[in-house]
Amino acid sequence: MERLYNRFSGKSRIGVFVDGPNVLRSEFDVDLDDVRSATREHGQAVVTRLYVDEHATPELIQAAEARGFEIVVTSGDVDVKLAVDAAAAAARDEFDTLAIVSRDMDFKPVLETAAREGVRTLAVAPGEYGRSDGLQNAAHTAITLE
Questions:
Q1: pLDDT 10s digits, 3-56
Q2: Contact status, residue 16 vs residue 98, Cβ threshold 8 Å
């Protein structure tokens, strides 16, 4: 019911899930502040998670926490953990819009599942070179960070 209220009131709760190893690479030069700004245009972030593997530097973790991101460190595949968490949160009605920040086509089923649950979807690419057309086409809205 809250999802319907938010749609009619114009307010949207956004869940932002960042695929750290796939996005935070030197060739993309992605700034987490830019991620927050790009998604803020679509509503208020109520979940902001950065998924990293065990090789993430303490500096990266500290910088992400300083920008309000919850850090999820995995010892296995980051994609699997992020996908399961995002789909589960969408099913629990934690947000109205799911933003996946990645260039990985593996997240297409997550966007499709969320859409079937009535959640708007947003694919955020880490630049023109890092854009997955398949992922962008699976989402209701696509953003490419500059």
A1: 444 555 567 999 999 999 989 887 778 899 999 999 998 999 999 999 999 999
A2: no
Indicate the helix (H) or strand (E) that contains 135: helix 133-138
Q: Could you tell me which of 145, 95, 146, 129 has the C-alpha nearest to residue 27? A: 129
Residue 19 and residue 60: Cα distance in Å, rounded? 13
CA 84 to chain centre: 13
In CATH terms, 1-144 corresponds, of 3.20.20.70, 3.40.50.1010, 3.90.226.10, 3.60.20.10, to 3.40.50.1010
Tokens of 22: 């796939």
Domain boundaries, the chain: 1-144
For the beta carbon of residue 11, count every other beta carbon within 10 angstroms: 11
Please tell me the pTM assigned to this model: 0.90
Nearest residue to 47 (alpha-carbon basis) of 114, 125, 146, 144: 114
Q: How many CB atoms lie within 10 A of CB 111?
A: 25
Phi first, then psi: give them for residue 99, nearest 5 degrees.
-110, 120
